[in-house]
Design a protein that fits this description.
flat; six-stranded parallel β-sheet; alpha/beta; seven-stranded parallel β-sheet; 1071 residues; 38 helices
């Protein structure tokens, strides 16, 4: 499996790289793959990247993935990449010897000792305009394992460039070129809007190192310092310290720099390339100098053929023009700081300073700026050159949008000025935003700093009523309120007094505040209404910033002790109290399961739906059963609960309930004998606590099930309702609403092992089932969350979405520190499955035919025929195709076997979690069928190691699974060929698809993953077909194992001597 990367080459580096005759910036597309490679020791020249694809293979890969462009040109460049130190034997190299190692592979765990070394990489090069077209084809969302993470960043950068072009945020410019008198005409981005500055900060903070790995590591700007490869530094002490001799190449372990200037440079190249391609010069009637400039802005390299005098005139004019409009990207910008007037004074001081571009908390007063003269000043760790010129340039731009600044420029070295109250009001209300748009910082007093804090709002104190248990969202609270603005409280009388001053800026309790007419009207309406406050309001206003009450923002909410405990648990600031296993629960709960039970009970009190999304193997079934038993023990379970699950797990639910909650009356609504009328179903439900049914019957018997007054509804494998438009999803969500027969609502619980919080498109249907009000209607969700997150990668919307659904989703992972201590090193799970109708028919026919044959067989042949029967029945339990000697995997393959359906469901969770799994079977024919099915179902390679695998094939499969960061997640092995002698600790799941009757053989296979070197918990899944020979022999094995583990012997030989009566009991299919 290969991974595609993209790295920017600046003009100087492109000239140094082998890209034909191109001496201009562009995008280098390259890829690395997993392969066995020997560690490399650098010499005088950068070594070839041992894991990268050559140009032919890369071209073929791009064509296969429909990413080929005719604009690609062959290229070879030197990139400075993260590398791991490794000696030829695979151990760490000594500090005294020469460095040797390999480039780090994407997806490989980052080692503690990480170096940055230059590697020569083959790739394909695109000029900026072609790179923009190519990047526009890349997807922003979805799962694309072949595309490296930095390509998403590149896609966002290109979409920003398109946005700037569409909004006209660009200017033509003339830039000097070394060795040429005329300079170069080019288009540059105009980044003087606040939204663009924030976007620049975000992209600079997320700048992938590989995206600029070909840039020089030293210098303040792109392309400055260093060699063409970006990995060549100076020799001497640094090279010697790395183990290089004095005569060796001066290679240094540089880590490429990053920051705003690099992003701006790449953005400018992308924008220039796109505008240049589409620009058509029209020089008629223009001054010859301007006509030459316009011509150079069209297609080509932009070079100007001008005399030194003309070039200077044009460069000066265009430079001043651009700076007058847009300013310049610099490490600092001008800042205006408004201070409140002194006591008894009406004038507002406005002080001038320089403010750090990357860190606005760093400021340098104008006094210090002028004291530095034409030199350099230090702003934190950043050196600012010509600070006085920078300050004046910003003051000039401030003058364009805020005229009073003119008075502050009366002196040659302005430091501060004073504003009248009216001017201060204009600065607070409108000018501050416009100043920020032109790149001038503004700092206002805290009470006037903008946002909701400077708006008239409420300060609230609240507590639960003495008689309240705090379990009902609609119950009223004991509360009192005060008006608040800018952190200062005021009464209605104070508000009326301040309003009578007829001034927008007024002083109250030592703080200056702004009174807006709209806020005054809202406050008057609120005071006249004096509304009640209930628990639902308290949860809402404390759950998100900026919430309002009757159109007034809530600035402060102080909860009493009892109410605070409820709020902390609800908002997950404090976990709900754990609940021990309830009375009547036949088992023990682990500590994290007790916390899960407490969480389910807590949300149930508030009538809020809950999604238990624990990692596979952590016991979601057990926790749900414990919750139902808790309700029964508390005498709260008064009506039946409906549980909907895939058909493949209904048997498992019934068995688990019988084992752990024997007091719960459980019934299945399944099969041809199920009740078909309202009266029959109501009669069947008398005394029933839990009714189990499948998703298929939920849809088919929807009207019948809707007639029942359920106390609650549970959906297992909740990803089954992820498509909101499917009938299955609609049926589940409709049934979750309260029925007409009862005034009481019904609780809703969803169980899933998939990380639902990362699947934005699937989240709405789940939350609509649990708590419909949380995410609103589907169209609102689509516009507010899905499109911004999936199409544009909006992290703010993603954070808000997670905050809204977070209280209702509990997900614990096996890797959590709080869980690890609760779990054994190895967790064994019995996966109970049923038989499909085809399997039942085939199973019974095989038993009937074989028992007659065995009864008539001579004594010496009975032993072999018994073993043949057992083998045939095990094959039927796997899949009818195996028993019928079918060789292909057709449509509906999984539907013919309940075991395959359940396997698909669990494997999907394994893949979604990024884990790896071993799948063992004793039948080679079944392994080939299963391999074809899994590869078709999950669209990824599934290697199969069995007896006919050659030694080299065997080792290659093991190496890829164990060592390749992007290797296969599933590894299918025959029990005999793969059960011993292998080290496969990369797997954290082991599946025994069919049972081997000697536990020692199964344990040996499990130990391929569960052995020294394993850092994760190992989940062992043993499939058992309910009511079949598999269940009965499993029971016999466990009974014998209690006496002695070696009494069983090996294989199935001990089963061959059973007498006819015992054999019939063993193989008979139970209902």
């Amino acid at each position: 499996m290969s991974l595609l990367h993209a790295t920017w080459l600046t003009s100087g580096i492109a000239a140094g790289a082998t890209v034909g005759s191109f001496d201009r910036p562009g995008l280098l597309i390259w890829a690395d793959t997993w392969r066995v490679a020997a560690p490399v020791t650098p010499t005088r020249t950068s070594p070839p990247h041992p894991l990268s694809l050559d140009q032919d293979d890369l071209g073929a890969w791009l064509e296969e993935h429909e990413l080929w462009s005719e604009a690609f040109r062959p290229a070879v460049a030197t990139l400075t990449l993260p590398s791991r130190s490794q000696s030829a034997r695979g151990s760490k190299s000594s500090a005294s010897g020469p460095w040797s190692g390999l480039p780090l592979q994407a997806g490989e765990p980052i080692p503690k000792a990480l170096s940055w070394w230059p590697w020569q990489v083959e790739g394909l090069w695109l000029k900026p305009a072609a790179a923009a077209d190519w990047l526009g084809q890349l997807p922003l969302s979805g799962h694309h394992p072949d595309l490296a993470d930095e390509l998403r960043w590149w896609s966002h950068l290109q979409r920003w460039a398109l946005s700037l072009i569409a909004r006209g945020r660009w200017l033509p410019q003339v830039e000097p070129v070394d060795g040429a008198t005329g300079g170069r005409a080019r288009w540059v981005p105009l980044l003087n809007r606040e939204e663009d500055r924030r976007r620049l900060e975000d992209l600079a903070a997320q700048l992938p190192q590989v995206a600029v790995a070909a840039l020089a590591p030293s210098g303040n700007g792109p392309g400055g310092g260093g060699g063409a490869g970006g990995g060549l530094g100076t020799g001497g002490g640094l090279g010697t310290g790395l183990g290089l001799s004095s005569g060796a190449a001066p290679l240094a372990c540089w880590r490429p720099g990053s920051g705003r200037l690099r992003v701006v440079a790449i953005l400018a190249d992308l924008l220039d390339g796109q505008l240049r391609e589409s620009f058509i010069p029209a020089s008629e009637g223009l001054d010859p100098l301007l006509a030459a400039w316009q011509q150079a802005l069209g297609p080509g390299d932009g070079r100007l053929d001008l005399s030194a005098e003309d070039a200077e005139r044009l460069a000066t004019a265009t430079h001043h023009w651009r700076e007058a409009v847009a300013g310049r990207v610099a490490p600092a910008h001008t800042c205006l700081e408004l201070e409140i007037p002194a006591e008894g004074d009406d004038l507002w001081p406005l002080r001038f300073s320089l403010q750090g571009e990357a860190d606005p908390s760093l400021k340098l007063a104008a006094t210090a700026v002028w004291a530095a003269g034409a030199g350099t000043v230090q702003l934190g760790e950043i050196a600012v050159q010509q600070p006085g010129e920078l300050l004046l340039e910003g003051m000039g731009r401030a003058l364009q949008v805020f005229e009073p600044i003119e008075r502050g420029l009366d002196t040659a070295t302005p430091e501060q000025m004073a504003l009248t109250p009216a001017e201060a009001f204009v600065l607070v209300r409108t000018a501050a935003a416009r100043l920020r748009d032109v790149g001038v910082g503004v700092v206002l007093p805290p009470s006037l700093s903008g946002g909701l804090a400077s708006r008239l709002g409420l300060s609230i104190e609240a507590e639960l009523l003495p008689s309240s248990r705090g379990f009902s969202l609609g119950e009223s609270l004991d509360w009192r309120w005060e008006l608040m603005i800018g952190g200062v409280t005021l009464s209605l009388r104070d508000l009326e007094r301040l309003a009578n001053k007829r001034s927008p800026l007024v002083q109250h309790k030592g703080a200056w505040i702004e009174l807006r007419p709209g806020d005054l009207r809202n406050a008057e309406k609120f005071c006249a209404l004096n509304p009640p406050l209930n628990l639902d309001d308290a949860l809402r206003v404390t759950g998100n910033e900026g919430e309002t009450l009757q159109r007034l923002p809530v600035h402060r909410f102080t909860a009493g002790v009892r109410l605070q405990a409820v709020l902390e648990q609800y908002h997950q600031q404090k976990a709900p109290d754990p609940l021990p296993a309830p009375e009547g629960f036949a088992g023990q709960l682990r500590p994290y399961q007790e916390r899960g039970l407490g969480w389910l009970a807590f949300l149930h009190r508030f009538d809020q739906g809950a999604c238990l999304a624990d990692d596979m193997g952590l016991g979601k079934t057990i926790q749900l059963l414990a919750f139902l038993q808790h309700l029964k023990a508390e005498q709260e379970l008064k009506r039946p609960v409906l549980l909907v699950a895939p058909t493949s797990v209904l048997t498992n639910w019934k068995r688990e309930a019988a084992a752990f909650t024997p007091e719960l009356e459980v019934r299945e609504h399944y099969g041809p004998r199920r009740p078909a009328t309202d009266a029959a179903l109501k009669k069947a439900l008398k005394g029933v606590d839990l009714l189990l049914t499948s998703y298929g019957l939920l849809q088919r018997d929807n009207e019948l099930l809707a007639a029942i007054d359920w106390q609650g509804m549970v959906i297992d494998e909740a990803q089954a309702i992820k498509n909101p438009s499917s009938k299955q999803s609609q049926s589940a969500r409709d049934l979750a609403r309260a029925g007409k027969q009862s005034r009481e609502g019904r609780f809703r619980i969803a169980l899933t092992g998939t990380p639902v919080e990362n699947r934005v498109s699937e989240l709405w249907a789940l939350m609509d089932f649990l708590n419909p009000r949380v995410l609103g209607e589907e169209e609102f969700f689509r516009q507010r969350y899905r499109l911004p997150i999936e199409r544009y990668g909006d992290t703010a919307s993603l954070r808000d979405l997670k905050a809204r659904v977070g209280p209702f989703i509990l997900r614990r992972l096996k890797t959590d520190k709080s869980i690890i201590s609760d779990l054994p090193e190895k967790v064994e799970l019995n996966e109970w499955v049923g038989l499909s109708p085809e399997q039942v028919t085939l199973y019974r026919k095989t038993v009937d035919d074989s028992l007659d044959t065995i009864a008539r067989a001579p004594l010496g042949q009975k032993h072999g025929q018994v073993l043949a029967l057992l083998t045939k029945l095990k094959q039927i339990c796997n899949h009818p195709a195996l028993a019928l000697k079918e060789t292909g995997v057709g449509n509906g393959f999984a539907s013919r076997s309940a075991k395959v359906q359940r396997l698909d469901e669990i494997v999907e969770e394994v893949i979604d979690a990024g884990d790896r799994a071993l799948l063992f079977t004793q039948f080679a024919e079944w392994g080939h069928l299963l391999q074809a099915h899994l590869q078709q179902r999950f669209r990824q390679e599934v290697p199969f190691l069995y007896g006919s695998s050659s030694k080299s094939e065997r080792q290659a499969m093991v190496d890829r699974f164990q060592d390749d960061p992007r290797g296969p997640q599933l590894f299918l092995l025959s029990l005999k060929a793969g059960g011993v002698g292998l080290n496969l600790t990369r797997a954290s799941h082991v599946f025994h698809i069919d049972r081997w009757w000697n536990p020692a053989v199964e344990n040996q296979a499990t130990d391929r993953a569960y052995r020294i070197g394993q850092t994760n918990r190992v989940m062992v899944h043993k499939f058992i077909t309910s009511g079949s020979v598999e269940e009965k022999i499993d029971r016999m094995i466990r009974e014998k194992a209690r006496l002695a583990e070696d009494i069983i012997g090996s294989g199935e030989e001990w089963l061959g001597g059973l007498d006819p009566g015992k054999l019939r009991d063993l193989v008979a299919l139970e209902d």
